[in-house]
Amino acid sequence: MAAGLRTIVILSFFLAIGFMLCILSSALYHNFLPLLVVATYVLAPLPNWLCSKAENRDDFMDSGASGIVELGKFMTGAFVAMGIALPVVLAHCDQIRVEAMAMSIVGGLLIYSTIISFTMFFTQEEEF
């Protein structure tokens, strides 16, 4: 029980640092475009979650991957890539500063890695 609580506290700390970096990347430079990264990283796990719920797990002999699960993984990867590429494109077009870009990317990666870690630590496998 103590290990689970410690994991929650540590992951919450990293999530708070990620959100703080994303908010500071916007607030310090008076430009709120880097906050779009937060939206992409919050939306990134949704296709994976929705497509895993739509997967048919009743087949006894099914050993291959389902197409809907692969679609969810692809869409999640596209959201993560967009979360990294969006600040780079905005910095290249001089819409945001390079410092804001770096803070936004690091904060976004912390947010997404924390969300993935939460799901890895607290997902229970179903046994037959």
Automatic annotation (TrEMBL):
It is found in: Membrane. Pfam families: Vps55. Keywords: Membrane, Transmembrane, Transmembrane helix. This is Vacuolar protein sorting 55. The chain crosses the membrane at residues 7-26, 71-90, 102-122. One of its GO terms (cellular component) is Vps55/Vps68 complex. The keyword Transmembrane applies. InterPro entries: Vps55/LEPROT. It comes from Meristemomyces frigidus. It is a multi-pass membrane protein. Belongs to the OB-RGRP/VPS55 family. GO terms for biological process: late endosome to vacuole transport via multivesicular body sorting pathway.
